[in-house]
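Data's thin. Show one?
=====
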Amino acid sequence: KFAVVGDGQSRGELEAYARSLGIASQVIFTGWRRDLPTLYADLNVLALSSNNEGTPVSIIEAMAAGVPVVATSVGGVPDLVREGETGFLVKAEDIGGMAAAILELVRNPERAERMGQEGQRLAQENYSVHRLLERTRSLYLELLRAKGLA
């Protein structure tokens, strides 16, 4: 099954398109979800096909849950996804590339598992609450030292 999470102006068009292809029973439109840990636990792959992004929290959350990522190489996404290690990056609007990358992970679950594990390791190492607190503490100490207060 394929899940489309969230709502937006294209949802109705996407639902109609799924019906026209005869795949509506295989596509779940979830709308907005608050139970993200449950959602990520059910995913085999997170696919993010944005044309414009900052640093998408959904990628960090998926990686923390051990889910490999296929995403467009826009904005801050390449800073998060390590090509071939934690997932795949494709050019924006490259529908064939996105589909091929998703299929690669679906057809090769061992590779997907390795990428998910590496993503989880990187997310914990770089984006955990502990890491954020340590970075904040280090910044404050650096500022205090610069002022001669520490």
Observations:
- The two ends are 56 Å apart (CA to CA).
- Residues 34-125 form a domain with the Rossmann fold fold (CATH 3.40.50.2000).
- The mean pLDDT is 95.
- Helices lie at 11-21, 36-41, 57-64, 77-80, 95-107, 109-127, 129-146.
